[in-house]
Design goal:
two-stranded antiparallel sheet, four-stranded antiparallel sheet, alpha+beta, 3 helices, flat, 33% helix, 28% strand, single chain
Length: 108
Amino acid sequence: MKYLFIISAFIFISLLTSSCSKEKSDQKDRSNQIDTQQLFDCNKSQNYDSTKLASKLIGTWRWTTSYAEMGGTTKADKAVFLNFTQTGTYTVTENSVVISLGNWDFKS
C-alpha cells in the first residue's frame, strides 16, 4: 500500500505538470522544489474529470523520483513500474517482481 501511494502521487503530479509549460531557462533553477500553486493552476486549466484523468493514467509508468516538502528529493534506487489497464486493474513491479496488484477506479 505504501508503494501504491508513492507511485500514485508521483503519477498524479507527473500528469499535472506534463501538460503545462516549463519554466524559462533564465529563471532560477528550482528542479528540486515543487511549486504547489503551479500544480493547482495547471490542474485547473486542464479541466480534468475522472474519465479524462483515468484515460491519461492507462499504461505503464516508471518511478524515477519522489518529492517531499520536508524530505527533499529521492531518486529511485529500484526499477519500480506501475501498470494501469483499461479494465481497471493495476500491477506494481519492483525489479521485475510483482509486489502489488488489484483494482483501481476513481470515486467522485
